[in-house]
Design goal:
heterodimer; A: 119 residues; alpha+beta; B: 258 residues; mainly alpha; 81% helix
Chain lengths: 119, 258
């Protein structure tokens, strides 16, 4: 379903997929992981987080797993979210895309330097 | 303790705010969002950071989410109605554009409103009647019947089929539509009953000019004779449409379902 023609992911979706790539997480857990991954630069509110999760579920990128108690928090049972195979593929493709962009940027920097020295 | 009280209060208000989401969305994510909101407040309380400004930002952010989701929900659930409205507007653009280039087309505001209502109502009628139809014949039958009804009303309002639009004889065409509405209600939209209803409409349609010619006897001038032929011709056209629709409903009936 996910191929190279797939549209780039939105920043929110990319961060959520990254957060879920290591383990299943509940809403608050995703928020904290996104905050940590982005070194505090990305702060999602519940509206953005759950809006994105809803669309990601529809797109088959993540799915809900059973409600569990998070022993590190309180005794409330929480819905955990899990990345799917399609989600993993989408994440891999997006990261490849980023790597490609960085490679091009690095190359241009070298070329520009070379050119500027040449002029 | 003071923190605990205010967190509980804020959580209650947040839970009320979440009820503004569409029902399916609320049922799916409402509890998780409320928990996440509570977790974020607890975290700030542990770190002894200001709660109210943060809660205010959360309420704003979630309100924006509600607006986004509600808009999406309305669009998703009313796509067909929006499509009908867009088609109606597109059709109405034709006379509007024509008025820019020729004096032959001279619609006033009332004309546009009436035409808009008729087109939208016809689209809506098709959508409501054919939405659940599983077979093509049933949908085609509904389409033909709706188009016939639309043209019948439009022509009568615009110029009138019998004489001018002010001729009371044209009111008999209301009877044709009434036969359709009553028949469809009795048939409960089942194809077999709808086939009979459309057949009845065809008969009623055929009888209208006959009654009109008997009641409003035209004098035998060549001009009026031509008008009578016109009335018969137009009526025959509508009879044909109703018969075609009845046959399609009959075909749909043969498939055994709508």
């Amino acid at each position: 379903m996910i191929d190279k023609k797939t549209k780039p992911l939105t920043p929110a979706v990319l961060h959520i997929l990254l957060a879920l790539s290591t383990k299943d997480r509940h809403g608050y857990g995703i928020m904290k992981q996104v905050e940590a991954d982005s070194l505090g630069k990305v702060n999602m509110g519940p509206g953005t987080l759950y809006g994105s999760i809803g669309r990601m579920i529809e797109a088959g990128l993540v799915h809900e797993s059973d409600k569990k108690i998070d022993s590190e928090m309180d005794d409330e049972r929480r819905v955990y979210y899990k990345i799917t195979g399609s989600g993993q593929k989408a994440l891999t493709l997006e990261l490849d895309r980023y790597r490609g962009v960085i490679a091009v940027a690095n190359q241009k920097r070298l070329s520009l330097n070379t050119l500027s020295y040449g002029i | 303790m003071a923190y605990k009280l205010s967190i509980q209060q804020l959580r209650r208000w947040y839970a009320k705010l979440l009820r503004l989401f569409s029902r399916p969305y609320y049922e799916r994510f409402g509890q998780g969002m409320e928990q996440t909101f509570n977790d974020l407040l607890q975290e700030r309380a542990r770190e002894d950071r200001a709660l109210l400004a943060f809660a205010f930002w959360m309420f704003l952010e979630t309100s924006a989410g509600i607006t986004r989701e509600r808009t999406r929900f309305i669009i998703m659930n009313n796509q067909n109605i929006i499509r009908i409205a867009l088609v109606t507007v597109s059709i109405l653009l034709l006379p509007l554009l024509a008025m820019l280039f020729t004096d032959e087309v001279a619609w006033d505001l009332a004309d546009f409103i009436i035409a808009g209502i008729l087109l939208f109502a016809a689209g809506l009628a098709y959508e409501l009647l054919a939405r659940r139809a599983g077979n093509v014949a049933y949908r085609a039958a509904v389409a033909v019947a709706v188009v016939a009804g639309l043209i019948l009303v439009w022509v009568n309002l615009a110029v009138g089929i019998i004489g001018s639009e002010d001729n009371p004889a044209n009111l008999m065409y209301v009877g044709v539509l009434a036969v359709g509405i009553i028949g469809a209600s009795i048939a409960r939209l089942h194809p077999h009953g709808m086939s009979r209803t459309l057949s009845a409409m065809a008969i009623a349609q055929a009888l209208v000019p006959v009654f009109a010619l008997i009641i409003w006897k035209p004098s035998v001038t060549s001009g009026e004779a031509a008008i009578d032929l016109f009335v018969l011709g137009v009526s025959a056209f509508f009879v044909l449409l109703f018969v075609v629709s009845a046959m399609l409903f009959r075909r749909a009936s043969a498939f055994g379902s709508t």
